[in-house]
Amino acid sequence: MESVSVMYCLYILLIVLLTVCAVVVLASVYFKYVDAEGILMGKIPHLKGVPIFDNTFDCLLNCEQLFQFIRNQYKRYRGIFGLRGFNYRFVNIFDPKDVEKILSASNFNTKRIPYTFLQHWLGTGLLISNGDKWHERRKMLTPAFHFKILKKFLININEQTEQLLDLIQDEVGKERTELFPLIAKSTLQTICETSMGASMREDIKSVTNKYFQAIHILGKCLMYRLSRIWFYTEPFFYVSKCSRIQRAALTDLHKFTRQIIRERREYIKQNKITTLDDDDDVYGKKSRMAMLDLLLEQEKLGNIDEDGIREEVDTFMFEGHDTTATALCFMIMRISNEPLVQNLIYEEVQRVLGGSEHSPTMEQLGDMKYLECCIKESLRLYPAVPFISRVVYENVELSGYMVPKSTEINIHIFDIHRLEDIYPEPEKFIPERFLPENSSKRHPYAYIPFSAGARNCIGQKFAMLELKSVMAGIIRRFSLEPVTRPEEIKFAAHLVLRSVNPMYVRFTNRKVAVEN
């Protein structure tokens, strides 16, 4: 009887297995040869893949391999290529005309994969939300990045720059300094004390290392999930080891932002601040309208709840520090390898600021045109966000091919910024590309480090202000000597552009001539 029971179980298991296989095969055939969208997809240049599974196994790669995989396909197909697995379709585009068609159209504003994979962390904040919620949040948060607000924030940005310069001074004389840990702590402190109105006291600083580690872990989890189609389904991902690792990292991330929100609430309550214009609204410093204050005010008006505040704080804490830190690290590394460019920046900074020791004003930073060109050229070569995605809910023609509805469109900024017909000798660092006479006729969607269209980066002016302040301060006080070379950099697919190995430079004090 026992052997009959075992045989019966094996028989049932075999039937289930065969049924699953049959469903998989039939589904694959349907989505490829019967479904109208699948037939359209088949006409777009794409990797052949394997029968039934298509490209499902082509992307089973680590972060470094995945980044290089896309670069290799770009070199092979140039304008457009597709990837698919079962009912998931991805079209990768590189032509600025196609990019404009997607980013400038209001009906192609929707985000889906991979942004939905970040919902456990960022909820449906400004980065991820769609439709009416996105419109409401964008309208709500835009005043926090008004020119007048940025001008007030510059005081704090300059203060943080000075603190960073003091930390760099401690690195002078060392053979090399690793950039990211140094820079990331500074940019995190800047976003905390400006947009969040939170002082980085020791009790908050104590959890920053866990915060950085958690972001790095989450980035790896995101790319791991993105490269495995079966994990696109939430229940399958939830029971995976990667999901358990992600949940542990999320605990640290949410702990940090909840502490920021709690501290701000208590400060407002203790100091009886009732409006956003109080003179003492940022820990005893001059009046600065913090984004978090704006959210707390909107909560009183019933326009946002506590969960909504948390998801926006999580979004801006990440976007406000990690992307800027990435941009600064790559720029410092590259400028250390460009001595002529470095000297020209120094000459401009000295010319604009003269011999004074004061921090630059908004107007003075605006006068640093060559530095701005250098920042733009660095963002061209090293865009902090190397690709973005949109989903199209109607058929659209791209590069002469009809792309079916419900397809994910991946826009590869990293490669667009290296198009040889637009940027001759694309790997060379040539800031003059961005002088008005050289850039005015360039396609507007050939340079999109902050995305473009209605869903462009809301904080791009803040980011440029911080990049200018920090770079002007560093070049004014220190000489940058190369350690890591550009050709040594190996990139990795991540939440933002990452170098596989740490980047290093050598800082030395500038020798300032003394006038007699």
Can you lay out the helices and strands and say which pair or pack?
Blueprint: H1 2-34, H2 36-42, H3 63-77, E1 80-85, E2 88-93, H4 96-103, H5 119-122, H6 131-141, H7 147-169, E3 177-178, H8 179-193, H9 202-205, H10 208-226, H11 234-238, H12 241-270, H13 291-300, H14 306-336, H15 339-353, H16 362-366, H17 369-381, E4 387-392, E5 396-398, E6 401-403, E7 407-412, H18 413-416, H19 436-439, H20 460-477, E8 478-482, E9 491-492, E10 498-499, E11 504-509
Parallel strand pairs: 2-7
Antiparallel strand pairs: 1-2, 3-11, 4-7, 5-6, 8-11, 9-10
Helix pairs in contact: 1-2, 7-8, 7-20, 8-14, 10-12, 12-14, 14-17, 14-20, 15-17
Cofactor: heme
InterPro entries: Cyt_P450, Cyt_P450_CS, Cyt_P450_E_grp-I, Cyt_P450_sf, Cytochrome_P450_Monoox
Protein name: Cytochrome P450
Describe the structure.
- With 516 residues, this protein is of the alpha+beta class.
- It has a single domain, classed as Cytochrome p450, CATH 1.10.630.10.
- Helices cover 53% and strands 9% of the residues.
- It has 20 helices and 11 strands.
- Helix 7 runs antiparallel to helix 8.
- The radius of gyration is 25 Å and the shape is globular.
- InterPro entries: Cyt_P450, Cyt_P450_CS, Cyt_P450_E_grp-I, Cyt_P450_sf, Cytochrome_P450_Monoox.
- Its cofactor is heme.
